[in-house]
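hey m, so remember when u said the tokens were messed up on ur end? i reran from scratch. heres the input so u can diff it against urs
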Amino acid sequence: MTILSSFDLSGKAALVTGSKRGIGRGMAEALAAAGANIIGVSASMETDGGAVGAAVRDLGRKFYAYQCDFSHRAAMREFAAQVNSDHPVIDILVNNAGTIKRAPAAEHDDDLWDEVIETNLSAQFVLTREVGKGMIKRGSGKIIFTASLLTFQGGITVPGYAASKGGIGQLTKAFSNEWASKGVNVNAIAPGYIATDNTQALQDDTDRSKSILERIPAGRWGNPDDFAGPIVFLASSASNYVHGEVLTVDGGWMGR
């Protein structure tokens, strides 16, 4: 095997949650460009996959569209059962779906907390457990979580999000500790400040945006294309000895 061929995902099936837009869409398209067929799911995914489905098909790959609201446990469990039935072999699982709710801690209602924790952490656990069973049985698989800078830091006005992403870091390690010896790689990517819908409020805040940019050594906000290389690496055989890693893709933020 050559070094370049180790990044080849031809014939692999990749389940990417939250793949309709933003980082998830960028990851789905990158995996398709490397050869994988995509199983895409989002709370508002179109039946044909919309723009991401079209992009994946333009790359010559198949796109299978699903809709699921990850904040509802029953819907999440139903989706897990359905996707496992429809696709008995899922080689790659990208746990990217997530939400963020901004409110000062003293005003952060239980409903906001519950929705964020369910979507960002509990649903990730349930889906990984259910899809991971097949990977363990086959003795191979790649699982990648989307973590955050708030896996390491506390953030401001996002206590539920920070708690959920801190949990993702620990969940990555916990699954990896059990499954590395079974041929399943479990890792995470921690995005920095990326220009997506989730960070629009920060981008629109002149003072916050300025302070953020001043700390990023790369001198710019990231974009979904910045995740193409990292996601393909962690989904491919090139990363076979990488386990329990939380890879920051942050323009150097954590180095400060």
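this time it looks ok to me. The chain has a mean pLDDT of 96. if urs says something different then somethings off w ur setup not the seq
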